[in-house]
Amino acid sequence: MSQGIMTHSAWQTALTQLDSTAKLMMLPEDVHQTLRNFDRILTVSVPVRMDDGFLRVFTGFRVQHNASRGPYKGGVRYHQEVTLDDLKALAMEMTWKCSLAGVPFGGAKGGVICNPKTFSKSELERLTRRYTYAIMPIIGIEKDIPAPDVNTNEQIMAWMMDTYSTNNGYCTPGIVTGKPVNVGGSLGRTDATGLGIAFTIASAIKHKKMNLKGLKVVIQGYGNVGSAVGKFLSEMDCKIIAVSSSKGGIYNPKGLSCDALINYYRENGSFEHFPHAEGVTNESLLELSCDVLVPAAMGNQITQENAGKIKAKMIVEGANGPTTTEADQILAERKMPVVPDILANAGGAIVSYFEWVQDVQCYFWCEHEVNTRLKNLMDRSYEAVYALSREKKRDMRAAAMMIAVKKVADALLIRGIYP
Q: Alpha-carbon distance 103 to 407, whole Å?
């Protein structure tokens, strides 16, 4: 749920953010134009023999934005509304996310247009293996490393890894990240994005001189990422007062039990009729009075229509692109702090990098070491963005983009153009 399907404006938003950053930095025009474009976009046919014997042909993509700082890295999503523009926006964002975090990867994104919820497990396996085979010429442990995203998981990563390994004739666990631990996955990977968001909130609260204990938090999108955020913040003595799924949410100003929320959702598939809580819509949940609002569901949830009604003291973006460009301007005018997605939700990308490093070295770390290293990188990134934000008197998103784009631009310039 953390990286929901975006709207048709996602690509335009990504370009607008880059163009604004280039202008602020006075980026050379040739570098600007290079970063606006992509190294490679591959479209593939994915024929699959379905269980009923009929052959269906699906369309798949792999988008590679920029590899100036290292191999491409990014998720693979299965969804009936996947568009090339969405994947382009997400691949570009991944470049900035890795750059900002100090991870030596460039951005990529992949996907197949399909509704995996209608597939049997065997159909899903055949789709995955054929898609992997189709993109094999451009992926590799030192070229492009896929990962899970919307409607894909560690089982799908295991099939991708096995398909690539079988075709190469030897086991290559580092070809994907987000795998099961017993085939080269990393401890700590499952909760990494949520834990990273919790670390970010702790850093932001420290700078605001607020207290974590009793901090009132609203989380839109209580899926894998949102529930992990809730769990870790609860352990920090924060108070989760509202959460939601795609079917709506619940609110209790006295706080909600994270364990009870997870168990209830697992049993019922929604939060409807959750005891001792008031029902709220996803839209009204965003406008609740709270200390921290974490939009961790779909893109484009905070818009020019509702940005003026948000009562949170701070927004920390858990999803990719939850705030539109127009909403950003309104929030800036209201002087409402927004911690951007490329900073706040980078935990998954960081621990994916750790997984890749462990696979390459064939040497694995304990979960405490993974989480400690994650905290170090998240804290370092936050401090750098906060400092530049203060120095340039710009919002956190502008500061984060300036740091991220500069690292990629510097790498591009020092490497030069071949031939």
A: 11
Q: Is 109 marked active-site? A: yes
> 3-class SS at 185?
coil
Mean pLDDT of the chain: 95
What DSSP designation does 302 have? B
Query: What pLDDT, in 10s, does the model give residues 188-242?
Result: 999 999 999 999 999 999 998 899 999 999 999 998 899 999 999 999 999 999 9
CATH fold group of domain 10-14+26-172: Rossmann fold (3.40.50)
The H-assigned helical ranges of 189-235 are 192-207, 224-235
Q: Which residue is catalytic, options 109, 216, 231, 375?
A: 109
What does DSSP say about strands 248-251 and 239-245: parallel, antiparallel, or unpaired? Answer: antiparallel
Distance CA 97, CA 342 (A): 5
Query: In the chain, what are the helix, strand and coil shares in percent, each to the nearest 5?
Result: 50, 15, 35
Listed by start position, the domains of the chain span 10-14+26-172, 192-342
Angle at alpha carbon of residue 321, lines to 196 and 36, rounded to 5°: 110
Report the candidate in 38, 34, 30, 31 with the shortest Cα–Cα distance to residue 11. 38
H helix runs in 208-280, sequence order: 224-235, 258-268
Written out in words, the top-level CATH class of the domain with range 192-342 is alpha beta
Residue 409's contacts (CB-CB under 8 Å, 6 or more residues apart) are 25, 27, 28, 31, 35
pLDDT tens digits, residue range 210-224? 999 999 999 999 988
